[in-house]
Amino acid sequence: MRVHQPGGHLMRQHGADVQDWSWRKTRRRAGLLWRLMTPYRRRAALSVLSLLTAVAVAVYFDARKVEAPVERCEREAVLVA
Fold first, then answer.
1. What residue spans define the domains of the chain?
2. Cα(38)–Cα(44) distance, rounded to whole angstroms?
3. For residue 51, what are the CA distances in angstroms to 4, 15, 36, 78?
4. 41: burial class by Cβ within 10 Å (0-12, 13-18, 19+)?
5. Tell me, what's the pLDDT at 11?
6. Is the Cβ–Cβ distance between 43 and 37 less than 8 Å?
7. Burial 3-18 (b: 16+ CB within 10 A, else e)
8. pLDDT tens digit string along 3-19?
9. 37: which residues sit within 8 A by CB, 6+ positions away?
10. Maximum distance among all alpha carbons in the chain?
11. Average pLDDT over residues 23-52
12. Confidence band, pLDDT 50/70/90 cuts, at residue 68
């Protein structure tokens, strides 16, 4: 089963180009998204929480990866001296 076919209907633009970026229209669009999301607030909150947790874990492990070689070098320097 092919999902994407060059020149297929998925490649055509369907009026997604926004011409009016005024605050009134933007607020209206955000309000519509909020109303559509209301039945799924728990899922949306869980998604945001999961995203923030994943970012925090990635930052934590990245910091540990940077600190680990420094600590190892310091220990080796103490053993040599």
1. 21-80
2. 9
3. 28, 31, 21, 41
4. exposed
5. 62
6. no
7. eeeeeeeeeeeeeeee
8. 666 666 666 666 666 67
9. 44
10. 71
11. 92
12. low
Provide the percentage of residues in the chain whose pLDDT is more than 90.
31
Residue 43 — pLDDT band, cuts 50, 70, 90? Answer: very high
* Structure-token pair, residue 3: 């999902």
pTM (global) more than 0.85: no
3-state secondary structure the chain: CCCCCCCCHHHCCCCCCCCCCCHHHHHHHHHHHHHHHHHHHHHHHHHHHHHHHHHHHHHHHHHHHHHHHHHHHHHHHHHHC
